[in-house]
Amino acid sequence: MNQAALLAKFRRESLATASPAQLLTMLYDRLLLDLDRAIAAIGSGDRAGANEQLGHAQQIVHELRCSLDVSAWDGGQQLLDIYNYLYSELVTANVGHDAAKVTACRTLVTPLRDAWHQAAAMPGTGTAAVAVG
Predict the structure, then answer these.
(1) Total number of domains in the chain
(2) Cα separation of 89 and 102, whole Å?
């Protein structure tokens, strides 16, 4: 098996065996990676690359919105509002190839990602984090 095939197998197995809290943090990590790649692509004039990265980021935000149980905690609706805002801004940034909008989204996502990583690392809170993520 070549290195690319081994890496693909590792990724599949990591996803299949990850806890819900780990999956949530993986989504946030990938969202930030997509945003970083989109900023770089916009900066270099790679419209297709930016579109691909921002499209994937939009899919992640959509998944976060769909999996969020707003009734699970008091802040659920506010988090949904943030996800809706992010999605709208990412669509606008994609259409206008606006690196500043992508950067602003990244600034908003970073503390959320950090908070979910902290919550997932706490004993007994891994599954609770998923109910609101």
Answers:
(1) 1
(2) 8
Question: Whole-prediction pTM value?
Answer: 0.82
Asked whether residue 65 is assigned to any structural domain, the reply reads: yes
How many Cα atoms within 13 Å fall on the side-chain side of residue 8? 5
Q: Which structural domain range is residue 84 located in?
A: 20-132
Q: How far, in Å, CA of 117 to CA of 98, rounded?
A: 28
pLDDT per residue rounded down to tens, the chain (133 residues) = 777 666 555 556 655 567 878 889 999 999 999 999 999 999 999 999 999 999 999 999 999 999 999 999 899 999 999 999 999 999 999 999 999 999 999 999 999 999 999 988 888 654 444 444 5
Please give the backbone phi and psi of residue 32, each rounded to the nearest 5 degrees, phi first: -65, -40
Q: Tell me the CATH number at 103.
A: 1.20.120.340
Helix ranges, 18-98 (H): 20-43, 47-67, 76-96
Residue 49 lies in a domain: yes
